[in-house]
Amino acid sequence: MKIQFEREKCQGHNRCYMLAGELFDVDDEGYAILRDAGTVPEELERKAQLAADNCPEFAITLVTD
Amino acid sequence: MTAPARPAIDDWANDFDHTHPDYAAAAPEIWNELREECPVAHTERFGGAWLPVRHADVAAIAHDTEHFTSKAVIVSDFRGFIDAPVGYAPPITSDPPFHQEARRLLLPAFSPKAVAALEPYTREFCAGLMNDLLANNPSELDAATDYAQHIPVQVIAHMLGVPPEEGDRFRVFIHRILEAPGQTGPIAEEDTLSFYLWHLIEQRRVDPKDDLISYLLTTEIEGKPLTAEHIVGTCALLLLAGIDTTWSAIGASIWHLATHPADRQRLHDNPELLPFAVEEFLRAYAPVTMARLVSEPVEVGGCPMKVDDWVLLSFPAANRDPEAFDRADEVIIDREQNRHLAFGLGIHRCIGSNLARMELTVALEEWLRRVGEFEVADDTGVRWSTGQVRGPRELPIRILSMSGTDSSQTPMESK
Q: Is the CB of residue B192 less than 8 Å from the CB of residue B139?
């Protein structure tokens, strides 16, 4: 599983960072930063799903290989 | 004093009035009916206003800064606002491109990491407040006026840098602005909020501390340091935007738990669900409806909107749209898919959202840590606010038992 994050859609709601801090960081202004180029280890797949399902701006999508 | 009863609204689709007590009492039912019959309601009141209730329409307007301006965000009969892009209370009343610059100044102070640093203070305050409230083993208390109301005022005062010993004086200013505007008679200038803030700013200029006012004094906009006027305006905005909104969210969440004992029990048994419950309360009881003015003619949901029409951005209505949310009318405290709009969407996303979330979470944790079973003491005593911020202003609660996790402090034992 890989995360695709559209930075230009992010408005700093911080839902991804709160739900999946292992996969997202935030910058000083509170905008999301994707960690590890979006690679999702198997044990974090549920958290990746939560991040995608709770982004109010639809900025996060998941791609499964 | 009770105001005389206002005539009922016969036609919510063509003559709505969001300031009417019937709207305060039954807004979710009104949105549901409108969604079925006329998803963009209209009124000639306020000089012409629209009320879209579908998620798709609310989201589209929130993202559209071409046809809608933020120069005014509270619907009234008045239209002579200071023009965008700056507006009278930047950045909430600003449009691009100025908006981004004014907002960027404030963002670092409200990032999740900055807000996390305020949590211990908030927790200590909430715990102390609960201690005081429960000290005499009351069987009833008002969760809105005795508890929820005090939390955001205290936290924002702390954040701005108001010294603790001046907290009482500060609360008087807030009370005057939020609850009794224009009702307190003439006030000496040195006894006003703006005079007080001015004085605090001058103190921090000489003797900076680790607070928001000191931080704002170090920032620049368009290459120049902020003026004292700008800082006073910003502080006033943060106070007005951060207090009755968060108060409403805390009160509505406690009201839900008082009226849904199974959800309350579940949170007592499974505290790890709280982060999901908090988001669900924000979805179902979103306090804030913003507004825009139409700046270029545009059509939304087949309705022609003309320049200077108001548009209410009902985030609470969008949050209950079944097109966007599964089982939209049910409160599901472990809902895992929840893209709610309680804090808005787009460039004006509530800058205090992390702060509000933290306050709501801590307020509920400290309430649940002390109180076990509780219920609404008197249904007719619950009063929801009218207008664009929705929440219980009076919420009489009867305490049925204290929480088992904190039995050392139950009033039962001390009796």
A: no
Residue the block writes with tokens 């739900």: A19
- Residues present in chain A in total: 65
B289 belongs to a structural domain: yes
Hey, are the CB atoms on B279 and A29 less than 8 Å from each other? no
B193 lies in some domain = yes
Averaged pLDDT score across all residues of chain B: 91
How many domains does one find in chain B? Answer: 1
Residue A12 — left, alpha, or beta (φ > 0 → left; ψ -120 to 50 → alpha)? left
Smallest Cβ distance to B107: which of A13, A29, A56? A29
Interface of B with A in 345-374 (CB under 8 A): 345-347, 349, 353-354, 357
Look at residue A23 and tell me whether its pLDDT is greater than 60. yes
Read off φ and ψ for residue B374, nearest 5 degrees: -155, 160
Tell if the CB–CB gap between A55 and B339 is shorter than 8 Å.
yes
Name the pTM for this structure: 0.94
Residue B179's pLDDT is 62
Which domains occur in chain A, in start order? 2-63 (3.30.70.20)
In this prediction the ipTM stands at 0.97
Confidence (pLDDT) at B189? 77
Q: Is residue B75 part of a domain?
A: yes
Q: How many CB atoms lie within 10 A of CB B20?
A: 18
Cβ B279–A11 below 8 Å, yes or no? no
- Give the Cα separation of B372 and B404 in Å (integer): 7
Q: Residue B357 belongs to what domain range?
A: 21-414
Q: What is the mean pLDDT of residues B187-202?
A: 86
pLDDT at B76: 86
